[in-house]
Amino acid sequence: MNEQISPSQINAAGHLTIGGCDAVDLAHEYGTPLGVYDVSQIKSQIQHFQEVFKNNDVDYAVCYASKAFANTAMYQLVHEMDCHVDVVSAGEISMALHAGFPASKMTFHGNNKSREELQLAVDQGLGVIALDNFHEIDLLSDILEKSQAEIKVLLRITPGISAHTHEYIQTGQIDSKFGFDLESGQADQALQRVLQEPRMHMLGVHAHIGSQIFELAGFEGAGKKLVDLAADWKKRFDYEAEVINVGGGFGIRYTQADRPLKPEQFVDIIIKTIKQESQAAGLKTPAVWIEPGRSIAGPAGYSLYTIGSRKDVKGIRPYLAVDGGMGDNIRPALYDAQYEAAVANRPAAPAVETVHIAGKYCESGDILIQEQALPETQPGDILVMFDTGAYGYSMASNYNLNPKPAIVFVENGQATLVTRRETPSDLERLDFGLNGQQLS
Ligand SMILES: Cc1ncc(COP(=O)(O)O)c(C=O)c1O
Ligand SMILES: N[C@@H](CCCC[NH3+])C(=O)O
């Protein structure tokens, strides 16, 4: 049996349960592909982060990086759990506001925020703008002056750390599109500029070295660099950072080959590093902010698919196709990301073969799992893919005009539909006919 499944998750019918709900019943009731989130897993990961901060006696904010997975219910849930959020677009800001998430607890990120997005952030009174470049400082300055408003800012720094992860999800190396570079003096210039802006309140520094990182050294290095920078700024510009935000990126287990530290263990070491280095440099201990996305949403998410066609090729692994694929999870095609799966209606059955799990999209690269050991399967069986909660639904597309799946939250045996499945009319709603008129 897959090591992701504990015997207590198998019910009397022999089916996998998620959050106390029968996965096969969920698939039949809500249809497939289906995203299922175990709410108690989300809550307990957030609590683990919060406990680590409390144990280390530092001021903090856990800012959920909502790009990992956002819908109205998720914003409500993380608000209930006393989190801040990291938002990166007018869409994320609007949905968070719609969900009742307080603007004051949002940090706005992005390497090319538009004037309209910055204006929205100012009008709504967002808590913090993470400034990424000089163009943005000019835009924000102009907007604040015209709106007679003020706002807190963080400076996003590129710390010059190449984290060991897929190159598409590295962000801390010098050759990066994000943030102010340290080596060339850009970061110093940005600080001096912001300190002259009467309507910007300089809160502190930010760095995010990348995503799905397992090595501690990168996080420790980023923490040290940010404290060194804060100490240097205190000395040279008489400015002391109140907040050091180390971003997210804590790696999670997708397959047996992954053996990361627990996300809160990374954070514990980051906090200790920042505390020690600050004391050694004669600085007050700053508040430590983190921005975990994947580590909160990823392990709590499961994708349910219905198994359909099968193609056996002589001498080669069979292709077992499911009713979703790269449209609801682009990660295997984009990053060669690895996942594990099981048959939800027979999770304890012994494996008899190794198959490719193929999606239904018109791309040869639409393979969700290259090698998955499975028991014998028939069309109609329900396949569960584990740890799909981050960057799956949020990166979903309508390729081949397939609708995006529904999302269900489960907890204590109760299921709640929180995002309905798209329908063909959802896909047509933005279109006009050749004559420029909406077709009835
Ligand atoms: C600025 C920033 N913060 C936080 C995150 C979240 O990262 P992760 O989902 O790996 O925790 C990202 C995405 O990589 C990011 O760009
Ligand atoms: N989308 C990426 C993570 C990028 C995070 C955004 N900076 C992934 O699926 O792994």
TrEMBL record:
EC number, UniProt record: 4.1.1.20
Gene3D superfamilies per UniProt: Alanine racemase, Lyase, Ornithine Decarboxylase, Chain A, domain 1
Pathway entry: Amino-acid biosynthesis; L-lysine biosynthesis via DAP pathway; L-lysine from DL-2,6-diaminopimelate: step 1/1
Keyword Amino-acid biosynthesis among record annotations: yes
Residues annotated to bind pyridoxal 5'-phosphate: G249, E291, P292, G293, R294, Y391
Cofactors demanded by this protein: pyridoxal 5'-phosphate
BP-aspect Gene Ontology terms: lysine biosynthetic process via diaminopimelate
Enzyme kind, highest EC tier: lyase
Binding site residues for substrate: R294, R331, Y335, E363, Y391
Domain annotation Orn/DAP/Arg decarboxylase 2 N-terminal: ranges: 40-297
Family label: Belongs to the Orn/Lys/Arg decarboxylase class-II family. LysA subfamily.
Function field: Specifically catalyzes the decarboxylation of meso-diaminopimelate (meso-DAP) to L-lysine.
Protein name: Diaminopimelate decarboxylase
Gene behind the chain: lysA
